Amino acid sequence: MAGLPGEQFLQEQQLCEAQDTLHTMVAAIDAMDAEFQAQPEMLNDPEWVRSAIAHMAQVDDTARDALFHALDSSWEPDVFATFVQFFINPRPAGDEDMGYLQRLDRDHYTLLKRILAESAALGEAGWPAPPVFDAATSYQTFVLARRGLPLDAAWQQSTLIPRLKKLAGQGDLPMAAVAWYTAASPEDLSMQASALAGVDAPWSGLAAQTKRTEALLTALRKAPDAELLPPLTPEPCGVQKFTVEPAPKAGNQTRAGQE
């Protein structure tokens, strides 16, 4: 935690950089959402389904790229941990306490499940499979669905995962990707990700995703004593400074002292 005046000024600079990163991300995602929501929903139209999945995948990539930006920074542990907390709250008391990425995953999965469960555009496969859909759409759907597994394990175990295994048996999905999807532990996931390194694109991207997540978790474990500062917001910081104050003991307050 910052103590001396020079250390506090450095922390303020880092907080400002972190908040500007969030502002840029949220502004970009809001613009993407506005453009997509201007289209009428056509659940049974293959072109709309493709567009919806591509939109969610683009937003997902934008948010996670911003999160993993922290790995390339030289922020002190308190700033790093506070930045990550904006995206992921490990112990949310309710929907309002969920991190930005947690809410995003929930909202995307809600729409994705409607597509997978109801869209006639997917045909008997119940999946965006060839010849109507290309490998990119199938991959994007696969990644988004996996984000939703912790939210809807019962339906996925009873319905979606058997569907994925059938598609893999038909050659429409890589067997290694399904093994990655159903990995039962972080160790198993890491092992399955290694097996995916030799798979053709876009499926080899699962290995890269796994490595980035592991790197983030490793960085967090290296700073076990990091103190969470008052929550960051997606408001622009620019040349303004933060007054660093102790984190509130209760409630979900925004950062105190932003001028």
TrEMBL record:
<protein>
    <recommendedName>
        <fullName>Mycothiol maleylpyruvate isomerase N-terminal domain-containing protein</fullName>
    </recommendedName>
</protein>
<feature type="region of interest" description="Disordered">
    <location>
        <begin position="227"/>
        <end position="259"/>
    </location>
</feature>
